């Protein structure tokens, strides 16, 4: 079955760029939307945005100025870049297959923003 | 953005209890409402999509109903493994938004 695995630095300095990758196994990333979410410790879920493998993207307006998503079909990966991070961006970050409902999720990766 | 409000924020229940969680949308979203279960340290898990469709592999003790602005998630007989936090999510339009969560713990 389809499995997702997030990867990237666990610690990012303030003002720098957070970069994460989601590697999909057990199926192709083609023909689906893929979303990124985050969840600060002890808080709820926030949608960051999504990408279709054609390159079409939708971003949360609250983060739009700082977010870029991309996909690499040859590696079966999607990526997230979030610029100018602050402590408020510290969270567990998840990728998920987006069929308007999220039916497959990665296990998540914790990102801490600190100097 | 469409605001989603869940109630209650938390509830205490016993094994075998029937519980209901309510989710209200700030405007009409038809049946574009999904429910997730999340356990500590784990990713959310899809339970119900399109308001009442049971995701494959999810026990039939879970059910969803509603349309428009008011939706419910019902667990007909609470099991030990059901103690978790539950979230609703609207899929009527981006940005996708979630309720604040309902934590179900053991009485």
What does this structure look like?
- The complex is a heterodimer of chains A (115) and B (107).
- With 115 residues, chain A is mainly beta.
- Chain A is built from no helices and 11 strands.
- In chain A, strands 2, 4, 5, 6, 9, 10 and 11 form a 7-stranded mixed β-sheet that branches. In chain A, strands 1-3-8-7 form a 4-stranded antiparallel β-sheet, with no helix packed on it.
- In chain A, a hairpin with a 4-residue loop joins strand 7 and strand 8 (77-82).
- By secondary structure, chain B is mainly β.
- Helices cover 0% and strands 50% of the residues of chain B.
- Chain B is built from no helices and 11 strands.
- Chain B has strands at residues 4-7, 10-13, 19-25, 33-38, 45-49, 53-54, 62-67, 70-75, 85-90, 97-98, 102-106.
- In chain B, strands 2, 4, 5, 6, 9, 10 and 11 form a 7-stranded mixed β-sheet that branches. In chain B, strands 1-3-8-7 form a 4-stranded antiparallel β-sheet, with no helix packed on it.
- In chain B, a hairpin with a 2-residue loop joins strand 7 (62-67) and strand 8 (70-75).
- Chain A binds chain B through residues 35, 44-47, 50, 58, 60-62, 94, 96, 99-103, 105-108, and chain B through 1, 32, 34, 36, 42-46, 49-50, 55, 87, 89, 91, 94-101.
Q: Which regions of chain A contain 5 or more consecutive residues with pLDDT less than 50?
A: none
Order of helices and strands of chain A: EEEEEEEEEEE
What would you report as the Rg of chain B, rounded to the nearest angstrom? 13 Å
The DSSP helix count of chain A reads 0
Beta content of chain B: over 45%
Let me know the average pLDDT of chain B: 97
> What would you call the shape of chain A?
globular
Low-confidence runs of chain B (pLDDT<50, min 5 residues)? Answer: none
Number of strands of chain B: 11
SSE arrangement of chain B, N to C: EEEEEEEEEEE
Pair of chains with the largest interface and how many residues each contributes: A-B, 21 and 23 residues
Mean pLDDT of chain A: 97
Helical content band of chain B: under 10%
């Amino acid at each position: 079955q389809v499995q997702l695995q997030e990867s990237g630095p666990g610690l990012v300095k303030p003002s720098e760029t957070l970069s994460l990758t989601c590697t999909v196994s057990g199926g192709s990333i083609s023909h689906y939307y893929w979303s990124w979410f985050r969840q600060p410790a002890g808080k709820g879920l926030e949608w960051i945005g999504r990408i279709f493998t054609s390159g079409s993207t939708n971003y949360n307006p609250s983060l739009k100025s700082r977010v870029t998503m991309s996909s690499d079909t040859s590696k079966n990966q999607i990526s997230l870049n979030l610029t100018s991070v602050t402590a408020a961006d510290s969270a567990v970050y998840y990728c998920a297959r987006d069929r308007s409902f999220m039916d497959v999720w990665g296990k998540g990766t914790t990102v801490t923003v600190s100097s | 953005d469409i605001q989603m409000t869940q109630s209650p924020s938390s509830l205490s229940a016993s094994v075998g209890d029937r519980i209901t969680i309510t989710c209200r949308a700030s405007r009409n979203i038809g049946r574009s409402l999904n429910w997730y279960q999340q356990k500590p340290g784990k990713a959310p898990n899809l339970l119900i999509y399109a308001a009442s469709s049971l995701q494959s592999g999810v026990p039939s003790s879970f059910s969803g109903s509603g349309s428009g602005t008011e939706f419910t998630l019902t667990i007909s007989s609470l099991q030990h493994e059901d103690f978790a936090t539950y979230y609703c999510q609207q899929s009527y339009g981006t940005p996708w938004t979630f309720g604040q969560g309902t934590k179900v713990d053991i009485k």
